[in-house]
Write a structure and sequence with these properties.
Length: 245
């Protein structure tokens, strides 16, 4: 598979505090790449930097070989990147339908209205509540609505941060199955997820970060069988690297 996403010696952060420190990695087209590491390792910062919320101080971010380091979010959306951030990011006082319509605002109303039924086929429960306020949905339904809103754009790249937070195990499995299906259909997925073992089962590659640096990248299936997996997640990525490699 070809390379879709590449970070080349990227340094990024907030004001004078750098989170990513000379980070380099590649993610393949049509695959799910899982970002691992302890809190503060830089996982969410990778997604924000790729989506243009943070600008690299050094290095390059490439999408299909094109340098997009200085691109705006509008430009990145046009290039097929969609971002589902952590937490709830809906307009609670608007209906499900209105939230979807806003999600497709860059597409125009005609295209949005054509795509909404297609997207809702993935989420039958949300489909049943089209005229309900978003705030009245359960946590799982709200997350599904967020993912559905992103799918309206038919993204080539989907960035998703902690999709399982606040969801029941059954809903989590449904979301993971959907991500796997999207990847199998050609969408490149870059994911941060605390439910490491379940996420590894549907991922192709796993990348471990520590202090904003790459300490490990290998097939998810290999890492799933690694006895150091818990230490990797809880904060010992660097220590686990020699045995894992």
């Amino acid at each position: 598979m070809s390379t879709c996403i590449e970070f080349d010696d990227v340094v990024a952060g907030y004001k004078d505090f750098m989170i990513l420190n000379n980070l380099s990695f590649k993610a393949k087209t049509g695959s799910i790449t899982l970002l691992l590491g302890p809190n503060g390792a830089g996982k969410s910062t990778v997604l924000k930097t790729l989506f243009g919320l943070l600008k690299p101080r050094q290095g390059r971010v490439l999408l299909n070989g094109e340098d997009v380091s200085g691109a705006s979010q509008k430009e990145l959306l046009a290039k097929g990147i969609a971002f589902v951030p952590q937490g709830r990011n809906l307009f609670g006082k608007l209906t499900v339908l209105q939230n979807l319509e806003l999600g497709g605002i860059t597409l125009g109303s005609k295209t949005t209205n054509e795509r909404i039924p297609e997207v809702l086929e993935f989420f039958p429960r949300v489909k049943e509540r089209m005229n309900s306020l978003a705030s009245s949905l359960s946590g799982g339904e709200q997350k599904q609505l967020e993912v559905g809103r992103a799918l309206l754009l038919r993204p080539k790249v989907l960035l998703i941060d902690e999709p399982s937070i606040g969801l029941s195990p059954l809903v989590v499995q449904d979301v993971f199955k959907l991500l796997r299906k999207l990847a199998d259909q050609g969408t490149t997925v870059l994911m941060v997820e605390q439910n490491v073992k379940s996420a590894l089962k549907i991922s192709d590659e796993a990348i471990a970060l520590e202090s904003g640096r790459l300490v490990l990248q290998k097939p998810a299936s290999e890492l799933l069988a690694d006895p150091h997996i818990e230490r990797l997640f809880l904060g010992g990525a660097a220590a686990a690297t020699p045995a894992a490699v």
